[in-house]
Amino acid sequence: MFDLQKSSEDEDDDIEEKIHQDSSTVKKEVEYPYEFDEERRKKAKVYSKQKMYTGLLGGTLLSLLFLGIVYLSGFAEYLAIGIGDLTESTVLAHHWVNAAIFVALFFLLMFLISLPISYYSGFVLEHKYDLSNETLGEWMKDQLKSLTISLLLSTPIVLGLFFLGYSFPNLWWLYAGILLFVISGVLSNISHLVILPLFYDLEELKDEELKKRLIEMAESNGVKKVEKVLVVKAGEKTEKANAGFAGMGRTKRLLLFDTLLDKFHPKEIESVVAHEMGHYVNKDVIRFMLINAVLIFPMFYLAGEIFTYWGSFENIYQLPLFLLILYGLYSLVDPATLAYSRYREKEADEFALRTVKDGDAFVSTFKRLSDIALSEVNPHRLVVIFFYGHPAPIKRIKMAEKKVIAENTPTKKQKG
Ligand SMILES: [Zn+2]
């Protein structure tokens, strides 16, 4: 998707006014081209830092600490033994059933431990900066939905990995790699059909003229058979804007956040869609699937070698150790995959600039996107290396400005 950092959602308790909801009926005039708002630039500096620190603390450090503590303290082993004792004289008394209960409880515990920081980062901060329109109840409901989906997915996957590791000690990494490749391929194709509607209402774009223009632009650039242009009613939850193409073949759809339609000039909307078209035409989804496939086999192989040095796939309670090793290996390659992602984003930007041929619209889009989402436009290089899957906004703006200058500079031939 297009946005500069992951959009999170959220708002105030029990206030049922959804002012932002009705997007398609009244179209306000938006100022164009957009210029940075100094007030929002100041806020963005503080907000983006707070988001980064809470993300680091809640996402990375806390997870690592949790995994380390539950493993080293022996808690994981006690938990597994306890589950075994409880199910012993029941119909659930089976090695793999116990393992499934252990994995689900383990992930539930991990979710609960990180809940306070998720709440602070995803609800409190978002409200403090007026970026969320969600009530606490709605936010909690979304959290529960995410938890359910992740439990339904990760429990069988983890069990599958341990089963393969246990049953095929030499070739488990090959089978596990294939399994995960297939699962992620299926998920990336159906998540907009199955998972997205669980979080957002979707409706067809009513503005026939815009729809026609966007589809024509897509088709003339090789994105054939866009089946639907759907509006994601995200404004009920967040102020942030986004867009993207989803699916392949018959289910190919263009998704536009209502926040994008509401707050952006038609020229900017075209720039955003052109960028997304760039990803589609450049086959970025397939590229990333292949990269993941290439990485996952050696990663599993190495993780298995290290893991079985200390532990065994026979013992599900050693899951925290396995996850720690996998996490460590992923962290090593993460800067490389992020760098590749930034490169693909730059290519999509270049595609968009070639297609729309309007550098000014592009510059305006990035300034507006950054101000709305309170993104830091010029983050420290190290922050970019370790966290950014998109080039820093300032780079994208400068690239578009260069394009504007090039457009307005007469070539040697014209000068005579
Ligand atoms: Zn992109």
Can you walk me through this structure?
With 416 residues, the chain is mainly α. The protein has one domain (38-408). It contains 15 helices and four strands. It has a four-stranded mixed β-sheet, sandwiched between helices. Helix 1 packs antiparallel against helix 11, helix 10 packs antiparallel against helix 11 and helix 12 packs antiparallel against helix 14. It is elongated and about 80 Å long. It starts with 37 loop residues before the first helix and ends with a helix. The site of zinc ion has 5 residues, from helix 9 and helix 11.
Shape: elongated
What is the overall pLDDT average? 89
DSSP strand count = 4
- Unreliable spans: 2-26
Helical coverage, percent range:
55-70%
- Terminal residue distance: 44 Å
